[in-house]
Design a protein that fits this description.
alpha/beta, 2 helices, four-stranded mixed β-sheet
């Protein structure tokens, strides 16, 4: 293993991509929530973001299975943490746009777990 910094390739964080049944539909939810424009779009993949910044991608998966959080039968694999000023206000706004509030809330005074339209859990918190 060569630890010489001059031989290290230039790497940068580019995006996080979520599998889903309909990338156009799911990208609309996050585009509105995060105020991100579409950088690239096909029927099977959509990338949101600002030029020169990390993006958020959505990839069509034909046999997509929704996460079942908090039931561990189909784990969430990854989730986003969104910083907010007011938990109640943010939750209401997100629910109006298609998010779903599951019955289980581990620490509702610190953060809220919501599900996006494809079932991916994400959190809103005042800690970020």
């Amino acid at each position: 293993m060569n630890n010489d910094a001059s031989s290290r390739p230039s790497l940068r964080y580019a995006a996080v991509t979520f599998d889903c049944p309909d990338p156009v539909e799911l990208s609309r939810f996050y585009a509105e929530v995060l105020k991100l424009p579409v950088l690239y779009s096909t029927d099977d993949f959509v990338l949101l973001g600002e030029e020169g910044s990390a993006g958020l991608g959505f990839n069509r998966l034909a046999d997509y299975r929704r996460p079942t959080w908090p039931d561990p039968s189909q784990e969430k694999q990854a989730h986003l943490e969104l910083g907010v000023d007011d938990l109640d206000e943010a939750q209401t706004w997100l629910l109006d746009r298609g998010a779903v509030a599951p019955a289980t809330q581990p620490e509702p005074d610190r953060w809220r777990v919501l599900l996006d339209p494809a079932g991916h859990p994400f959190c809103v918190t005042t800690l970020a």
